[in-house]
């Protein structure tokens, strides 16, 4: 009688090209975009990169290090994508919109920046804002408050939009349906008590989040002009 032996399942092929920190960050970004922070694990990275834990630990310390590095990479690309020799007010506008769009595309970035506002890329972002405020003659005494106002506005609006999108996805409700329901509630309010909200019901239904965000940045720019 021939004795049968069970064969181990074939192992996934190991990558033959060089593994680098940049390659790990790119893979991590893809995992984060696809499933949020919970999708980023070292096990998921080893599978996506066809490598072992040891190879990954050679380049990064842990999951927190990967998440922070991926966040820095996104913000650094925002800074790199803005031309610095344009009008300072226009550069301020582009930086604000660039970070807004980055958080919209990568919702996990906003959460990580809120936890670690001292990340190198975020410090570079603040430094760029400060220099531009100086270039448009915002007094030094008002520069810190002005920079904080702009960055907090970007982070707050972008983070809120990302969270709203996440909740709608979890509840299987799209944005149009959500706004229709909210606008209907506003339209039913007593106009004598809520004249502005009642009148704004139609605008609420039709508004574009990105356009409204840009309008807010323009209001900020108009405001800092008065600080000169």
The CATH superfamily of the largest domain is known as: Tetracycline Repressor, domain 2
Low-confidence stretches: 8-12
Q: What's the level 1 CATH class of the largest domain?
A: Mainly Alpha
Strand content: under 5%
Fold-level CATH name of the largest domain: Tetracycline Repressor, domain 2
- How does the major sheet shape up? none
Task: Find the count of extended strands (DSSP E, 2+ residues).
Answer: 0
Report the mean per-residue pLDDT as an integer: 89
Which features does this protein show?
228 residues, Arc Repressor Mutant, subunit A, Tetracycline Repressor, domain 2, 2 domains
Structural description of this entry:
The protein starts with 20 loop residues before the first helix and ends with a helix. The protein is built from twelve helices and no strands. It is flat, with a radius of gyration of 23 Å. Residues 8-12 have low confidence and may be disordered. By secondary structure, it is an all-alpha fold. The longest helix is centred in the C-terminal third of the chain and has 32 residues, at 140-171. It has two domains: 16-60, Homeodomain-like (Arc Repressor Mutant, subunit A); 72-225, Tetracycline Repressor, domain 2 (Orthogonal Bundle), CATH 1.10.357.
How is the topology of this model organized?
Elements: H1 21-35, H2 42-49, H3 53-57, H4 63-80, H5 88-105, H6 107-115, H7 120-135, H8 140-171, H9 175-187, H10 195-199, H11 201-206, H12 209-225
Helix pairs in contact: 1-2, 1-4, 4-5, 4-6, 4-7, 5-6, 5-7, 5-8, 5-12, 6-8, 7-8, 8-12
